[in-house]
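quick one
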Amino acid sequence: MDADLLRADLAALYPQYGLRVAHRGTVLLAPTDEELLELAEIVAEPGGIVAPGRAGELLGWPEDEGVPAARRFLEWAWRLREAPSAARWRVPLAVLDGGRALGLAVLAHEIDDPAGTARTSSWLARAEQGRGLGTRVRLMLLELAFGPLAMTRAVTAAAEGNAASRRVSVACGYRETHRETGGDGVVEVHAAVTAAAWRKKRLRDVDVEGADGFLAAIRS
Ligand SMILES: CC(C)(COP(=O)(O)OP(=O)(O)OC[C@H]1O[C@@H](n2cnc3c(N)ncnc32)[C@H](O)[C@@H]1OP(=O)(O)O)[C@@H](O)C(=O)NCCC(=O)NCCS
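structure w/ coenzyme A:
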């Protein structure tokens, strides 16, 4: 089946499949299995996302590769496929450029989060890092969160040593809120941005479509 038709059928059941965020040739869409398999290939590749030995920067991802890594990623991504509700919603979005899946970004609201708070996380294939795409993707996620979804605050966390992720947060207007040390000894730096602070960094010309169905689901 054509990917757009498949996404339309999925959107009738899971409104996150109707969301589309676009900016200058980069498109964020809820991934079908075809895109998840492309992403699994990146995850499985040794050093596909972070340099060998730096997996600790991914906060909880084990240092694996090949088939176990691909399966772990797919099973994690499939578990995120659930009907959104006011109490909890998760929107994984494939980062697509020229029809290729280059990474994954997730916008979510978890059960314990205060009303109006969204979480973001993302990764890009290593070959695509360091040319501004990560900053654009974060700002695209925030456009969805603070625009049609009317969130008031977005939060994120990065390992203390993850300079790129922390720089993206600063560039998007986040401020550090607190630090926590995980069981593995990695220091997590938590940061938050308000809608007002994001507005000063907002990208022009981000196009968000299909938010009505999703908004209805998380408000019901
Ligand atoms: C984190 C990530 C999404 C950022 O995306 P990116 O496209 O590499 O980042 P950008 O090119 O937009 O750069 C953002 C900033 O980080 C800086 N930066 C990029 N790579 C860097 C590095 N390795 N060390 C230090 N700074 C770096 C850039 O100079 C830029 O700084 P500026 O805003 O002051 O100019 C991407 O690097 C990635 O996927 N990393 C691996 C997965 C990961 O760590 N995800 C986050 C888990 S919490």
